[in-house]
Amino acid sequence: MLIRAARADEAEILSELAIRSKAYWGYDAAFMAACADELTLAPSQVETVRATVAERDGRVLGFGTLEGEPPEGALGMLFVDPDAIGGGVGRALYEHIVSGARELGFTRLTIDADPNAEPFYLAMGAVRIGATPSGSIPGRVLPLLEVALSDDAALPRSVEEAIAAERAGRAAPLPFLLGPPPPAGRRDRAELPQPVVGGPVHRRWAALPYS
């Protein structure tokens, strides 16, 4: 299997593949029609979104995109032709895109995941950090996932994100949330920022051995 950059003249092939791959999950015709624009790549977009294809014997089996500019971007699309699902194509594309993103200086990638694809991304190391509205279906909410590409990227940016991380099974780096520890000998914590009382972050914070 060859992983390579997509060509602009493959935009139609990739768009058709994306639609077939999405339909694999059993969505009806009305749903697919509503998603059509979001699943379509124009020739002018292929390079902009850094589209990458996996092919074997000249046939495109799947593709993915890396969108945005460092340090934070998105794994925007990742689709595999239905008859190639389960053959390692998605994994190969994911690993190639993540590796390339790291080399380009990205530290975080987000993924607006189809609920059916979420288990794959979690198995690949992504974590769920929340939810995000669908770009095609009003009222539909999708899992919002994150891939941390550096140690610093693993730090939560808010108490809410830290709680979401703990619920997903990822430990929250508490010093980031609480700031520096108090001076030596100080035991009064009242002046420290207060996490949500009773929440998972609060329980971890309360056990910190300040001295």
Automatic annotation (TrEMBL):
Keyword Transferase: yes
Keyword NAD: no
Top-level taxon of origin: Bacteria
PANTHER family: AMINOALKYLPHOSPHONATE N-ACETYLTRANSFERASE-RELATED-RELATED (PTHR43877)
Keywords from the UniProt entry: Acyltransferase, Transferase
Listed EC numbers: 2.3.-.-
Pfam family, one: Acetyltransf_1
Single annotated GO MF: acyltransferase activity
InterPro entries, per the entry: Acyl_CoA_acyltransferase, Bact_Acetyltransf, GNAT_dom
Gene3D superfamilies: 3.40.630.30
Domain N-acetyltransferase, residue spans: 1-156
Protein's UniProt name: GNAT family N-acetyltransferase
